[in-house]
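Example record for the data management plan.
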Amino acid sequence: MGYHILVLAGGSGTRLWPLSRAGVPKHLLPLDATGVTLLRATVDRMLPLADSVRVVTTATQADACRRALADLSLPSEAVIAEPEAKGTGPALGLATAWVAQEDPEALISSVHADHHIEDGDAYRAAVLAAAYHQHPERFVRKPPAPPRLPATSWINPPEEKEATAQ
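Corresponding structural encoding:
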């Protein structure tokens, strides 16, 4: 009954061409002054939140993902390789099935490895708030309040209206 985070790290390396290529897609590039890849920054951001963090990638990128994360001492099953890239839905289906084998009651969140996040604390709060919204009974305490930054938005459910007989 743990909390698991799946990091989607696939792609064909075409969106940032010529920087990214099939062999070095965007999530494996260091795109800021720190020299840290987007994948590594994402995993570092998510590790404190979950019982496990797993990277879902294509078979052709699995070794590069493992190298980018080598010094984190993650277990071997932390990188899940799709045999063939089929898109986000099938990748999540594969990874979810993998997690469910060891934790049938798992609460799972997915995040993307190729996003640059300026405010890691606000991002973590948003991920936890989404998980809490789905299953509040699984949390010892409510996560921090959602961020109120101008660059951050929330999807609020519509207000319930009483039905009136006419």
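Summary line stored alongside the record: Strands lie at 3-8, 52-58, 79-82, 107-112.
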